[in-house]
Amino acid sequence: MEAKKISASRVYKSSHVLPPDTNNHGTLFGGKLMAYIDDVAALSARKHARKSVVTASTDSIDFLKPIKVDSEVYLESFVTWTKNTSMEVFVKIIAEDLYTGEQLLCATSFLTFVAIGDDGKPTTVPKVIPETELEKFLFEQAPFRAENRKRRRKESYNLITKIKENYN
Ligand SMILES: CC(C)(COP(=O)(O)OP(=O)(O)OC[C@H]1O[C@@H](n2cnc3c(N)ncnc32)[C@H](O)[C@@H]1OP(=O)(O)O)[C@@H](O)C(=O)NCCC(=O)NCCS
């Protein structure tokens, strides 16, 4: 399977933040932003794998700054790293003040998607080729993040076992 450039999975999404999407603080709902993040990240994974994908996990989303009503919210995503059947996708979220043009990095997130074959089971994906400085940086750090996810997944299974024990 031929490796693909990271740039081939780049996805952009832009939206005007209007009152129905905001909370009582006049800022974008966290849940709305999470839906945008999953949406762009899934498209990046689809473009890289050219197969069906599912979200396996979302790392913590760091909401660094609020995104105010009447601003533009802009998301950019791309696949940073792959293992066998899984792909790590990075998403950055920027808000632009539509009066001044000032841009603020408001949030970042990493998600993991798994490619699914016609048999409904995980299937292998191509490797990535990082080119820019940021792509190379994220690529090099990715195995450490994957290890943390593996540990967290184990903890989730332990928790599920504990919960089940308490229901019986
Ligand atoms: C994600 C899923 C396909 C994994 O399937 P599985 O049978 O457990 O498969 P495996 O344990 O062999 O894992 C397959 C890959 O997923 C990765 N993976 C599984 N769970 C993960 C998690 N929570 N976080 C990150 N990666 C995960 C594994 O590391 C493995 O990666 P690799 O092949 O690159 O080494 C399965 O758990 C699933 O379908 N989950 C529900 C997905 C869903 O409904 N998403 C929301 C809507 S799209």
Automatic annotation (TrEMBL):
Q: Does the keyword Ribonucleoprotein apply?
A: no
What Gene Ontology cellular component terms go with this record?
cytosol
Every copy of the HotDog ACOT-type domain together lies at 7-119
Question: Out of the domains of life, which is the source?
Answer: Bacteria
Q: Which UniProt keywords apply?
A: Hydrolase
Q: Drop me one GO molecular function for this one.
A: long-chain fatty acyl-CoA hydrolase activity
* GO BP: any one term: fatty acid catabolic process
Keyword Cytoplasm set for record? no
Report the sequence similarity comment from the record: Belongs to the acyl coenzyme A hydrolase family.
The name this protein carries in UniProt is Acyl-CoA thioesterase
